[in-house]
From TrEMBL:
Protein name, UniProt field: DNA polymerase-3 subunit theta
A Pfam short name: DNA_pol3_theta
Entry's transmembrane regions: none
GO MF, any single term: DNA-directed DNA polymerase activity
Top-level lineage group: Bacteria
Source organism: Thorsellia anophelis DSM 18579
GO BP annotation list: DNA replication
């Protein structure tokens, strides 16, 4: 059986959840690297019915970021 990877073929709810998940991971990334991120604005831009999902995913990515190292720049 072939797995479908075309995200455009996902139903609307699945696409929205994917976008919310990406927003949550982006916020966690910015927080980890101490970059400015306006959490209130990002949260406000999520669909109202997915606000709790956004916060769940944000908590997940925050916890995950504690277990992985920090990227370091390569100095020549």
């Amino acid at each position: 059986m072939k797995t479908e990877h075309n995200l455009a073929k996902l139903d609307t709810i699945a696409q929205q959840k994917l976008q919310v998940d990406m927003a949550a991971s982006s916020v966690a990334y910015h927080e980890k690297y101490q970059q400015f991120v306006n959490l209130a604005e990002v949260s406000r831009n999520q669909p109202p019915e997915l606000q709790s999902y956004f916060m769940e995913r944000l908590d997940y990515y925050r916890q995950l970021s504690q277990t992985i190292g920090v990227l370091e720049s390569i100095e020549d």
